[in-house]
Amino acid sequence: MTRPWYRSPVLWFALPGLVFLCVAWVDSMSNASSLDVATLSHSLSVDHENAHLGISWYAAPSVRTVGGNWSVKREPGGGRQEKRWFPLPSYYRNDLHRATSWHHLDIPHWFVILCYLGLWQLPWLWRYHRARRIQRTLAEVA
After folding, report:
1. CA distance 84 to 110
2. Using N-to-C axis directions, what is the helix angle for 9-28 and 109-141, rounded to 10°?
3. In what order do the strands lie in the sheet with 42-49?
4. Burial of 114 (0-12, 13-18, 19+ CB in 10 A)
5. Using CA atoms, how far apart are residues 14 and 18, in angstroms rounded to an integer?
6. Which helix (H) or strand (E) holds 109?
7. Any idea what the Cα angle at residue 50 is, between residues 87 and 92, rounded to 5°?
């Protein structure tokens, strides 16, 4: 006999991640956070504001850092003027100079949550198909 869905470990292990993503989405509407990492020839920035997760990377050989630099910033209010709960994804790039190419990808929080929910369903689908396969095998034996 299978246990009810509300007693499934899949539900209780994945629920904290879903709650975290929803809280991050609400937090991004009032605060802006960023993580910047710089190495000898490249730089990466991950920002979180206005219902977006933004990832920027660029190659800048003129940056002279030894080893690597990183910094974390958190500002109230956010940088963009317009605030929408369901923005569209976007991608920008600047390839004018090969030495300083720049790329920026904005991923909306709603899209991240939908992907998380889709991945969350995989263990349940596997369990469902496994139970059906066992039932078919038992029916053939009997």
Report:
1. 11
2. 170
3. 69-76, 31-38, 42-49, 52-59, 102-108, 90-94
4. exposed
5. 7
6. helix 109-141
7. 60
CB atoms within 10 A of CB 27: 14
Residues 116, 26: Cα–Cα separation, whole Å: 17
Answer yes or no: are the C-beta atoms of 34 and 53 closer than 8 Å. Answer: no
Are 106 and 53 in contact by the 8 Å Cβ rule? The answer is yes
Enumerate long-range contacts of 71-77, CB under 8 Å, 24 or more apart: 71/35, 71/36, 72/33, 72/34, 72/35, 72/36, 73/32, 73/33, 73/34, 73/36, 74/31, 74/32, 74/33, 74/34, 75/31, 75/32, 75/33, 76/30, 76/31, 76/32, 77/30, 77/31, 77/32
Residue with tokens 């800048």: 60
Token pair of 12 as six digits: 């209780």
Tokens found for residue 50: 């206005």
Q: What is the pTM of this model?
A: 0.72
Q: How far apart are CA 35 and CA 112, in angstroms?
A: 19
pLDDT in tens, 8-63: 788 888 899 999 999 988 888 888 888 888 877 778 888 888 888 888 888 765 44
